[in-house]
Predict the 3D structure of the following.
Amino acid sequence: MTERALMLRVALVVAAGTVPLPAPRSLAAQDTTAGKSVYVKWCAGCHGDAGAGDGAAAAYMLPRPRNFTGGLYKIRTTASGQLPTDADLERAIDNGLPGSAMPGWKGRLSDAERRSVLAYIKTFSSFFADTSQHVVPLKFSSPPGGGTGADALQVGRQFYDSIGCRKCHGDQGRGDGPSAPTLKDDADFPIFAADLHQNWRFRGGGSVEDIYRRLRTGLDGTPMPSFADLIDQKFLTDQELWRLAQYVRSLSPAAPPEVRDVVHAPQIPGTVPASPDDSTWARVARYWFPLVGQVIHKSRWFTPAVSGVWVQAVHDGKTLALRVSWDDRTESPDTAWLKFEQRILQTVAGDDSASPPPQAEPWPDQLAVQFPRRLPEGSGGMERPYFLMGGATDPVYQWRWTSRPRHAFAGLARGIERFDTLPGAPAGQATHDRGEWRLVLTRALATPDTANEVQLEAGRAIPLAFFAWDGSSGEHGSRMAVSTWYFLALDRPTPPGVFISPVLAMLVTLGLGLVVVRRAQRRGARHLS
Amino acid sequence: MRKLGAVAATGVVLALGLAAWTRQPPPPAQGGGTISGKVKFTGTKPAMPKIDMTEEPKCKAKYTAAPPTDEAVIVNANGTLADVFVYVKSGLPASYTAPAPAGPVTLDQDGCRYHPHVLGILVGQALAIKNSDGILHNIKAKAKANRPFNISQPTVMTSSKTFDKPEVMVALECNVHGWMHAWLGVLPHPFFGVSGADGSFTLKGLPPGTYTIEAWHEKYGAQTATVTVAGSETKTADFSFAGK
């Protein structure tokens, strides 16, 4: 080799060394940096700086934010105990987790931001870097047809019983099974068995396919196991597992309840039903009103047990009957749930997390229906008192009901703290049936105390709002679930004229039409002749 | 000449192979050292709460003599403590490799309790999880170093699971029956034992060396002792836990 050739070679090597080549390593580091800045800005408040699920807001939540350090995820397409796929994590980030505080981030964060934060949260657990981990999504079959038929649902129900779903989820699926009050997650936080009547709140989605997948994969970190082995061991077939998923799906409405502003109370012949299980109710439309935690006044409550109420109303011209039903695992107070209540109170912070958590007490369940004292005056008058139980100078009229002692009463609320009972009370009848309260409150449309008790006039928009407390979740006082103002409308009986006038109008039109045609035909005949 | 070279080469390869083979760590000496001892219990024996199995008549019926009680602390008649997991925490030579496991270790769910309550297993060894009750149990392994699992067994059946990494201890539980707990020690060697009804344990076949022995109890925590064994001698390591 000549000296020149050697020099050239050295020069080439040096040149190669100094040319800035794209190094994959530095790119990866860049990705994590981008992900970290997104994480710190949007995620750390709940999930914590180190991803341990212990951010500043975490103490107010149940379920708690995910602790990323264990690499343990509820909603996956992989077998029990396996890591989730990137697509699984992407779905949770994009769409959020219904029924929890986790919102969907699609539309709030860019595609690049969501991808980078996904990569970043994986760095919190060493399992994701462990190449011996097999992250393989399970192969899922398609649902067999006929899933809503009576036969299919009967098969599903049979397996609901035989594989022991009812142990936690209860006989009717409202999360009130005998083991429910003992449940905790892997971090020892209390956890509720899902209420299978509210599929729109299922973390992993409420479709038949979603439910089937959860049965196959289980929800890691929770008491919900995987049932996949049962197919391998021929305890049930894949089709039977689908039937179970279809049965569970059938417990919820076909579509998530739509929130409408006005409860229509039709006028019925005879007298209004006072019992919650009167057959009349099966023929009356029901309206869903979502409730949220009371987070305005101390002590605040971020984890309301009652997520909403179903409301039906009828009147007979003299009396209104309002039926309110809601899912509540317990007929409080219930000693079987007292320890669970204590664990909730220890887990969920109120306002001042420094103060010791309150002691569990045998609180009753409660419900309140709120009206203004008087209907707003004038045609355009829509001014209503403050929705959160009025104020010192602007009280609201409320019906209240408690499970123990079991009674209904009425009064004026002047804010959350003050309630003055009135002599007049609605009649109340309630049933607690396997995780559901059904309550009927009845009152005369017109009462003598027109100053304090709302007069329920047909044809008017009557503002109303709802409040609910689950005693076994430690709810009482300001720890409650609240709604905003909605309306009740007592429909007037349709006057006979409404039905007759259109018929008359049609007949007149037809008659006139015939006359016109007849005349035209005669004229035509004359011309021809 | 060529033939001779081939023979010589073969001989060299064989010799090297033999040398390499003989340099492999010997399988644990049949004799080996033994560490045995007792786990004493001092102080007040805590009262274990009764377990109400009314929800599971099938399980409840299996306790005719006395109602079942919580198994967190079991003090034997001779004043020793049962269900203490005793194992070699450190001290084995780096070259040590465990023998292949003989067969699965069985964990039985019978009478809505785990049998045994505390057990050990080798890395990679099968854990046969048996449901003898024929009612719904779920079995959840709350592993941290290993991946966890949570599977359902609604009938008489056996499932098999393995663990990839050493982990002391993996908590096992049933969520249908909140009182059901078991503890599993996963180790890369077979030098572990659980104190029994007489409070004694024995670790056999240890290569010569100085070992840190740990005794772990679910309620009273862990204690360690240092023990040196040589040849086939038997050394004693006693532990003592105090009731609180």
Remarks:
- Residues 29-242 of chain B form a domain with the Immunoglobulin-like fold (CATH 2.60.40.420).
- Residues 11-29 of chain B have pLDDT under 50 and may be disordered.
